[in-house]
Amino acid sequence: MLALRRDIDWWNLPGGGMEIGETVEEAVYREVEEETGLKIEVEQLVGIYSKPQKQEIVLTFRCRVVGGTLIETDESSECRYFATTALPDKLLPKHRQRVEDALLKQERAVLRNQLTSSEEDQRQPLK
């Protein structure tokens, strides 16, 4: 399930930051419900993604829906399910990688650095 962000008109996975006093699990439940209207249950940690340029660490979880209804929200103009073979072209690239990682259904979480395009260019080996 993906959400179409109002601010940039790109599809993304629901998510966001933790609030003070909140556990990771509570933050996941709250963010998904705020952005989609769905109540979920966390099934598995898919990956840990470091974003050094922003000094952020992103956790991605595979979840299953246990209630609620997909709704339009202040942050998302549309929420929709997509076939895994038909993801939208305007899916944020870092989120596309996280979806692909979730589809692998590995036993252990992946660890990835997610760099900006300019950082990726700088880290390419010299020829």
TrEMBL record:
Its cofactor is Mg(2+). The keyword Membrane does not apply. Residues 1-105 form the Nudix hydrolase domain. One of its GO terms (molecular function) is hydrolase activity. The keyword Hydrolase applies. Keywords: Hydrolase. Pfam families: NUDIX. PANTHER family: GDP-MANNOSE MANNOSYL HYDROLASE, MUTT_NUDIX FAMILY PROTEIN. Belongs to the Nudix hydrolase family. This is Nudix hydrolase domain-containing protein. It comes from Dictyobacter vulcani.
